[in-house]
Amino acid sequence: MINPLGYTYAHEHLHIDLSGFKDNIDCRLDQYEPLCAEMRTLVSKGVLNIVEVTNRYMGRNAQFMLDLMRDTGINVLTSTGYYTDSFYPAHVRNTSAQQLAAEMIGEIENGIDGTALKPCVIAEIGTSENRITEDEVKMFHAAALAHHATGLPISTHTSFSTMGPEQVVMLENHGVALENVVIGHCDLKDDLDQIFRMLDKGVYVQFDTIGKNSYFPDTRRVEMLQALIARGFGDKIMLSMDITRRSHLQANGGSGFSYLVDTFVPMLLGAGITQRQVDTLLRDNPATFFGRAGAL
């Protein structure tokens, strides 16, 4: 259950292991004490919720999340689902959408890996860069089925801000009410027209790679947010950083989780976005989206 009184980072990872796939130990984020320190700092700054979108076969660790919540006071909303085709285990190829949905529903109803921790969101359901594979189509069907069975919202992964409109069409075709969908990683490509088209359909969008200036500069993220808010879409946007690496943590020389509130929010305020609008992006919109009946 989300705490609606504080800010929420809508798309994060606290325990993830993509080191084998990327052949890089930096991609194993699992350092407990540095993460505890950062979560305590976030709580002191009013960030009370983290939506943790690590799912099956990405290094998810339910007990790690439970320990973090106990030791830091952060509220972690966990996920169920599968990522993108490149990360699917072999059995997905021969498993039906109905069976995949049943796996997700089982976690939602019974808890993750034998713990009492139950997912609050179906995430991060992804597509490949500039294409959607046959198995990804099946996974979006499965996510829709799990949504219909449980009421949980769906949070997606787009690879470098591609295929978002196509994701919207797939979920709409499976009968998902689009106010229950947030399209992820919309801030890695300078394509406002694409974002406007998605927002016009009724979905939420995430600017969730804030601080990753090597991919796309935060100055452009600010300009895009100005344009979206000016068009009246401030109530359909959520923010986050998508931290995935050890080197992203402050203890290891990275910007750390606090960068969003310490550096990016002042950039927004300096660009004329009001404190009330910032509160909408970081508090009210996540509280509305993740606080729907099915996610309680």
From TrEMBL:
A divalent metal cation 1 binds at residues 11, 13, 124, 242. The keyword Magnesium does not apply. GO terms for molecular function: hydrolase activity; zinc ion binding. Pfam families: PTE. Its cofactor is a divalent metal cation. Its EC number is 3.1.-.-. A divalent metal cation 2 binds at residues 124, 157, 185. Binds 2 divalent metal cations per subunit. The keyword Metal-binding applies. Keywords: Hydrolase, Metal-binding. InterPro entries: Metal_Hydrolase (IPR032466), Phosphotriesterase (IPR001559). PANTHER family: PHOSPHOTRIESTERASE-RELATED (PTHR10819), PHOSPHOTRIESTERASE-RELATED PROTEIN (PTHR10819:SF3). Belongs to the metallo-dependent hydrolases superfamily. Phosphotriesterase family. This is Phosphotriesterase family protein.
